[in-house]
Amino acid sequence: MKLPKTIRLDESDDTVFPAAARAGEWAVTGTFAFVDADPDGMSAKERQAFRNGWMGTKSFGFATLVRVVEIAAETVDEIADDLANHLVEAYGAPNWETAAAAARGEIDTTAGLCGVEPGTLLAIEREMLADGIIERVRVIEMPATGMAADIRIWQMVEDGDD
Q1: Separation of alpha carbons 18 and 35, rounded Å
Q2: Which residues of the chain have pLDDT under 70?
Q3: What does the DSSP assignment read for 85-135?
Q4: Which pTM does this prediction carry?
Q5: Which of 24, 27, 70, 86 would disulfide-bridge 54, Cβ 3.0–4.6 Å?
Q6: Helix (H/G/I), strand (E/B), else coil: 8
Q7: How many other C-beta atoms are found inside a 10 Å radius of the C-beta of residue 96?
Q8: What is the rounded distance in angstroms from the CA atom of residue 129 to the CA atom of residue 2?
């Protein structure tokens, strides 16, 4: 199975989102956080999280970009537990069993978006329409050849968390 991990190319996530995810957190789309949201009632940072944020599964902050990574089954179980607890505490899920099922569904949905090579960078875009939220995930292409491919503009650093 593959899931995304948050990456930070710079510190902009700290300023554009209400809370930023840490680099190296496992992530889910987090669209569930906006299902009942009123876009007109959101702050600028909340709107940015809605439009372009992946949700980290430890901090429950947001990240602009994620990198697809292979994940062990036992780690998926840990993420599901953390997410289920968050659904109960922050979103008022009626009970832990319902939250656990929703957490697994969110993880499965996110894994379904990771049908690309490990290491691929992904961005997410959301839009609120009259009949619900539209979500698009796009691959961030890195130049393969030419001068731009030889210029080092950032460095990805693992934080050691699995």
Answers
A1: 17
A2: 142-162
A3: HHHHHHH--SSHHHHHHHHHHHHHHHHHT--S-TT-EEEEEEEEETTEEEE
A4: 0.86
A5: 27
A6: coil
A7: 14
A8: 30
